[in-house]
């Protein structure tokens, strides 16, 4: 379990899974976040508290209530978040003990410990911190996340908690988070599955004493940009740590008729099991990439299309170049870039994913329900 | 290679891949099928003749022309079809030799040989024949297919050739094929990838001498029903022989708001890598099924939903039943049925798929481009 506590009341904003089946703590947080305020976030890993009916709702309430009482803050400003197996009742005695332990030792753990505490099938803790100048003062945006499986656009089994000591108005915080998530977590896909629990939550408590940043100010731009850098860094960590992954794959589609078409095409390629297994096998199989983009439903003209693997053009304006061996060498790296230029317009989008390996199968065939 | 030859001119109809990137023989056949007539189909496995530009178009023409000349029939009534690796020039000398060998030994091979000849990563030949009464006469509908990888709705790397000695008007043949494909091949998904080459082609040469069947007649219904049974049988073979598959999975969604919603939900579940790996591992992980259906975008109310695994209710009206162990036993069979009842309407659809195993990864990481 992990606990984030702000010594002062913080502005807060969040984005949640678009899955119609949502975990109990997600329903609760969606309601409470409307206040735009937070004091604490309490997180558990191992049990998702999803598909648990009314009992699950009561347990999510209780997890927040116990934390609120121990911290002496209002219930409604304490968010709870869960990740793990679906459909199993929360072990509330263990939750109560965890809350007691954490609230009685506040300040004894850092962001790395928190990142480690919420890991499920992640192989390394994911956290980032970045300094941001706000006039003459300096603040920090820090965040930690978990990812691994069931990741698909629109935030799938992905939890991310962000904190900053910069003061930001709730409306500005909401806008900055929404944009940052759209350009980072919503462009990560591991297996096309979307979870019931995805949450990205940010608290901004203004401890550095700046005048709260509002939408449209020049400081807003600086803040929003830094936040996006933090979420993008976390997204790359999540993609590279997909279950069983050996490689990070960046799929860029450009020259599409629109940004929406570019994103749709890139997602289709990034979700193609055939493309992902080919990259795993260091196979410059651009035919599968063409088949995937062609089946995405976006406008594609074979005779205008370029495909690059690690910057090497393997298919240019509809013609094979014969550079497969050069491309194969690029595929052996830990980070592989696939670029598809459709030469139809100015739409551009990048999606992050990982290769598909036997490791994914093993992990998910054995991860017990 | 395989060759299907009709001693008399036959009515013909076909459906093709919806992928924007189509193989050369597909473009050619799409144009020629408008005549509603055919004499022969020539097929090769190993090379898809896709993403091969103008050279590919010339090669597809040449493959048909060589066959037409040898059989002494018009060019335009000879269809060619290819499957295999994308982006490699057709080895036309080998094609010419194959055509020569086949046309000089007509009638020496049966449907099983043809089914075997077009296999790529298929592990067994797929063919079906069924007798159909037409008034006092009796005809046969026979078909063979290949599948295995890159299968997704709308006919992905799926070739299917159907023949009948019953006379059917071209318009009726087209309608019957379209409906049969919609209810069979278009509901098979192996990995969500759609191929550049998918083709289902039927020839009806009327050798039994019946009056050609037209749309709307009672004989049309009998014929269309039998055709659908043939394509459904072939679909089941394709699904159970998905690359690396150990099990056939039938996903039925019922009680959806509409048939379209039911199909969309069933496809999402059937394409979920997490669901497919769970079934492989005999894991009654209905939580992944709920997460998948919830992320399909269709209307779902958790508290109304039932999930059955092999007929065992594991989640009923939003409540865990605790029947996991009983369900686990059902999952150990070679054919597994997942049923999701949304209790929202009367929409119903079934989709066929297979489990996802290390075998799929191995095969596709090593299948060279």
Structural notes for this entry:
The structure is a homodimer of 369-residue chains. Chain A is α+β, with helices and mostly antiparallel strands and 369 residues long. Chain A has two domains: 2-240, L-amino peptidase D-ALA esterase/amidase (4-Layer Sandwich), CATH 3.60.70; 248-366, ArgJ beta chain, C-terminal domain (Ubiquitin-like (UB roll), Roll), CATH 3.10.20.340. Helices cover 35% and strands 27% of the residues of chain A. The first copy, chain A, has eleven helices and 13 strands. In chain A, the strands form two sheets. Chain A has a seven-stranded mixed beta sheet with strand order 3-2-1-7-6-5-4, with helices on both faces. In chain A, strands 11-10-9-12-8-13 form a six-stranded mixed beta sheet. In chain A, helix 1 crosses helix 2 (53-71), helix 2 packs parallel to helix 3 and helix 5 (170-182) crosses helix 6 (218-240). Chain A is globular. Mean pLDDT of chain A is 91; it is low at 150-156.
Secondary-structure map:
Two copies of one chain form a homodimer.
Chain A (H helix, E strand, L loop, with lengths): L1 E15 L7 H9 L4 E11 L5 H19 L6 E8 L6 H12 L7 H7 L8 E9 L2 E10 L12 E6 L5 H13 L16 E6 L13 H23 L7 E9 L2 H13 L1 H8 L5 H9 L11 E4 L2 E5 L2 E2 L3 H8 L3 E7 L5 E8 L3 H9 L3
Parallel strand pairs in A: 2-3, 6-7, 8-12
Antiparallel strand pairs in A: 1-2, 1-7, 4-5, 5-6, 8-13, 9-10, 9-12, 10-11
The side-by-side strand order for the widest beta sheet of chain A comes to: 3-2-1-7-6-5-4
- In which range does the helix fraction of chain A lie? 25-40%
Number of helices of chain A: 11
Proportion of strand residues of chain A: 25-35%
| N/C terminus separation of chain A | 20 Å
**Which value, in Å, is the CA radius of gyration of chain A?**
22 Å
CATH architecture of the largest domain in chain A: 4-Layer Sandwich
**What is the CATH fold-level name of the largest domain in chain A?**
L-amino peptidase D-ALA esterase/amidase
CATH superfamily of the largest domain in chain A: L-amino peptidase D-ALA esterase/amidase
> What CATH first level of the largest domain in chain A would be assigned?
Alpha Beta
Number of domains of chain A: 2
Number of beta strands of chain A: 13
Largest sheet of chain A: 7 strands, mixed
Shape of chain A: globular
Give the low-pLDDT segments of chain A.
150-156
Q: Secondary-structure element sequence of chain A?
A: EHEHEHHEEEHEHEHHHEEEHEEH
| Oligomer state of the chains in this structure | homodimer
Q: Please, what is the average pLDDT of chain A?
A: 91
